[in-house]
Fold these 4 entries.
Entry 1:
Amino acid sequence: MKIPFSPPYIDDSVVAEVTDALRSGWITTGPKVKALEEEIRQLSGAQSVLCVNSWTTGAIMTLRWLGVGPTDEVIIPAYTYCATALAVIWAGAKPVMVDCGPDFNISVDAIRQAITPQTKAIIPVDIAGWPCDYAAIMQLVQEPEVVKLFKPTSPIMERMGRITVINDSAHSIGSRFGGRFSGSETDIAIFSLHAVKNVTTAEGGAICLNMPEPFDNQQLYKDLRLMSLNCQTKDAFTKSKAGGWRYDIVGKGMKANMADVNAAIGLAQIRQYGQMLERRKQIFQAYDEGFSRCPWAILPPSKESGRESSYHVYALRVKGVSEEQRDAIIDEISRHDVAVNVHFTPLPMLTLFRQMGYSIDDYPQSFENYHHEISLPCYPQLTDEQVASVVQTVAEAYNVVMGKGGK
């Protein structure tokens, strides 16, 4: 039974929405982007939402708006995808990596130890859709001694008066923290709408704005939207009107906008996301039930103490295996046409970051989580039969590799 890892969810409603965009004669940024922004705003509870062409671009643009520079530091987890660090680098600041906890997510204690007068932002990451401890993180940045340590280096930072928390919510649209959906629990949160995410626009991202007073999040939306269109005073739709060709460039902008033809995919998906998310949860629970009978299996967190996952991927860990044995188990699983993955190779293990001086020896929990993690497929199209097949295939692969039985 061939089981892919994460195919996009494309049904008749998605095809119809995309076809409507194509036939409208307007395929770049327009009404469907606005409609998707409103759907995400309602789902997340954010004050304002701006859709852009990727999570990475959205993060770079957000950090540039904040005004970070070469002397500034942004704290990120060592256990994340490279985009988290690359966004900091391309924005012109220095990524400061800290270790994670046993639940995959950034350690709040490690954040505290890493804060210096150069710290301007923190980017926690919701690995596999499991929310970070945002109550603790938001409390930390508002502690008097931490605020006193803060040294702003831009007018925006002066207005903020403390470290900004930018949630990397790439995996976590639809997750919950403290009874609220992800996207409203920090100053700014950024969703990914990439092809493999729970809601996709093929490529895309969404910036959720929740900045505290004195910031006006509706005005900030307008400012960032302008920035996402090269700081051009007229968008393409306005310029296309008769006599509307004249425009100005009023800042150092970027080309970061989302197109309507992309937004159409996400618009159709998010309108049925409740059912899609419930199916992901059912699959997660079926995996929990299946692997709970395996003494070697460490089940991923999914729901506890006011937190609930978006059930993006099932991050299974295998007790007592080396990295090489984990890789052999993956190879054995793959021989049976079941696609699995690993989330993630810690940043210090990647060539770029090793060359920059980061060492995995400084992040023991990140390596501990990584070397025995196998990400299993979790998406609405999976049938109960396929889920059962994944459990059986993984268990048999473990037995083959670890010498505890045959197929």
Note: The chain has a mean pLDDT of 96.
Entry 2:
Amino acid sequence: MIVDTETYHVPVLLKESVDGLDIQSDGIYVDVTFGGGGHSKEILSRLGSKGHLYSFDQDADAEKNIVNDDRFTFVRSNFRYIENWMQYYGVDYIDGLLADLGVSSHHFDDETRGFSFRFDAPLDMRMNNRAGKTAAEILNDYSEEQLADVFYLYGELKDARRIAKTIVKARQQARIETTGQLLKVLGIDVDNTNGLWKKDMAKIYQALRIEVNHEMDALREMLKGATHLLRKGGRLSVITYHSLEDRLVKNVIKAGNTEGKVEQDFFGRFLSPFKATSNKVIVPNEQEQAENPRSRSAKLRIAERI
């Protein structure tokens, strides 16, 4: 098991995702989720002196892991702006793009960031903790209808309306600022040995995190930018962790757009700017899943620009 730094992040499907880029030694590549730098370092190890890697991350903590290499450029930004930044650096086309979506090990383990319900911490959940609304602000300021939509659309919770109603009623007495307060409002007993509450809380936290960071909109924009930037023969290598992310990536590979609207030519042949390199998604083997629990829900899709 490879760890990026002492405790920061364990890269998922490291070899498989980088192998999928089919790296050319003099190529230009982008890692849109730098994090602990594990995938970026592996890409750099396969580049020659004329190759270059641009890595994106909006989290200030990730900057501590910046690689000292002339072939490397760190971009302090959300990956949704990939086209603007490549234009800024004078890059018209790239040879490959890698994305390891979701939340890093570091975020889950840092109790001050509020990404995990294992800790009684402030409900923050911002990837970029220098800007934007926190999860607490969303819980306290959104209308009941807005909260229900967030839980249903991003957490796929069937009882989203009941959860929203419970939260709105409780916040009339006091603002909900921490994990402990949210658990109490929802009537969750953390000592419950069957652990069923954890599945619901995971969905609630996922929904809040996606809303806080505008993750789905950012992913749509990044995938659109990747489609424009990848040269013919370039590779797209994306690791997803839940069905909402995976659906968008699958649609782009299948149809060239995140909506999955397939166009056909005069002869009825499907038109798409991508060709999947395999008909099956790649998942971590049993050993990786045992060593890194975060990898258990991971799916890797690889496609070539045609």
Note: Strands lie at 28-31, 52-56, 72-75, 94-100, 230-240, 263-264, 270-271, 274-276, 299-305.
Entry 3:
Amino acid sequence: MRNDRYTIHDYVSYEERSMHTMPFINKVIESGKAAEMILVTEAIQEKKLAKIAETIARDRDKKIVLIAGPSSSGKTSTSKRLCIQLMACRRHPVALSMDNWYVNREDTPLGEDGKPDFETIYSVDLPLFNENLADLVAGKEISLPTYNFVSGKREYNGEKLALTEDMILVIEGLHALNPLVTEKIAPRNKFKIYAAPMSPISLDGKKWIPTTVNRLFRRMSRDYQTRGRSPQQTIAEWNSVKRGEEKWILPFKDDADALFDTSMLYELAALRKTAEPILLAVPHDAPDYHIVERLLDFLRFFTPIDISQIPNTSLLREFVGGSIFEPK
């Protein structure tokens, strides 16, 4: 392959080999083809999601789609984009988030450190969630809760839901694949998807940037923009988040009916634009500053791209802002 020319075929064969290398990405960007790489990467991911939707739509017994994955995997965007694909297959999807079934904050179980453990499955009101799902599958109407993250309370605002024959629930949440959350639902009525970044990026063909680093950059960017949280706060929580994933999420990956790779070929080049400035603002005497330095080293390997070129339907927009799926 010539260094001065890149075509769509290069990107397609590259994705099929699941080989992501920093030199390839940088050369594409520096050759002025960043926009094309973004669009083709998005198209390849959308094509994979469309195949999953077609599989679900063919089975009329499927009433509930469950999407799980570790933190900052892009579950919310995956859920919304899957709904669009299901509509294209003439199904009527309804997107729900398990977050709305969290227990009230004062009832959150405590971890070994004596602090509220928001990663445990028991932070979800399992009896109520199971009862609501069973009622929906049985054709009954339920009252939909909304979780108020400011007050830490579950609220009811008069919203109701009942499933018609052509409707299908699309539920996303950290624990969606855990059998405890759908123990009252027959297996034939469920389709389970594990969504997460699965294609690490190589610096030189031998050294790899773990996908957990991608997710940390995603979470850091989103936390700062939408939750007013500093990168220091996100980094301080990260080990606890990963421990929770290893205990409550990863054990159920192999039970999924489909795996959806949410990696984006260009994402570290894009996340450099959002993550680097806030990392550079961290004081050198801050706790865990050695981690900040390491993260900055990773980012500097990548030529940054203009994030305005990223479509507003992109999964990555969930983390850099500007997603069409964000509440208005």
Note: The two ends are 45 Å apart (CA to CA).
Entry 4:
Amino acid sequence: MNEKVREVVEFENHFSEFLKKQPEKVQNKIFKIIEAIETLERIPGNYLKMLFGTNGLYEARIQLGSDIWRVFCFFDNGKLVVLLNGFIKKTQKTPKNEIEKALQLMQKYYKTKKK
């Protein structure tokens, strides 16, 4: 088992709700990507990509065959990746409503953290 370079945590339960609905093969692939995010110093762009113009929102990218899943996350204090909502990608572009939902969760995270 590789040494962790960052901790991955979930904000609320959006991610686990999404995960539960996925087939086991997809869950395993998602766990592999999360493990890579936790243990690799430099995360490959095909695993994690920053969304342009979103103030630090990233999408973890999971692909199995021709199917594509995305899980939104962001860094907090450099080490912490907070997993937000996920969805199955059906179009070339990431749907705006999914990005909006993730950005709202991100704002909520920082608000609750301040308290």
Note: DSSP finds three helices and five strands in the chain.
